[in-house]
Amino acid sequence: MLSICLLIVEDEDPFVKLELIDNIKKLGLASLFELQIKQALDRMVSARCNNASIDGNLHATALWFRLLREHGYEVSQDMFTVFMDETNMFSRIEAYAQC
C-alpha cells in the first residue's frame, strides 16, 4: 500500500498519475487514498500540468478534465478547443485517439 501512495504522489509523468488515480477509483479503492489523490491533483493544478504527455492527447485531456471536476476543481471546457476546428467540431479525432 505504501508503494501505491508513493506512486500517486511522486510519479513525475502526469498522464501515468492520472491513469493510476482513475484505476484506483474504478477499483473502488479511492477512499483509501483520498489524501494522496488530493495531494497529487493539487500539485498538478498548481504546476498547471503543462506536460507533453497531456498536451495534444485527447484521452489524457479528457481524463484530466473529468478527475478535476469529480474532485471539485473548477475547470473550463475551453481546454478542449485545441482539438476543435473553426466550426467548433472535434477535428481529426483519429489523430488524437490512443491505440
UniProtKB/TrEMBL annotation:
Source organism of the structure: Vitis vinifera (Grape)
Cited InterPro entries: Terpene_synth_N, Terpene_synth_N_sf, Terpene_synthase-like, Terpenoid_cyclase/PrenylTrfase
Residue span(s) of domain Terpene synthase N-terminal: 11-92
Annotated protein name in UniProt: Terpene synthase N-terminal domain-containing protein
Superkingdom field: Eukaryota
SUPFAM superfamilies, alphabetized: Terpenoid cyclases/Protein prenyltransferases
Annotated Pfam families: Terpene_synth (PF01397)
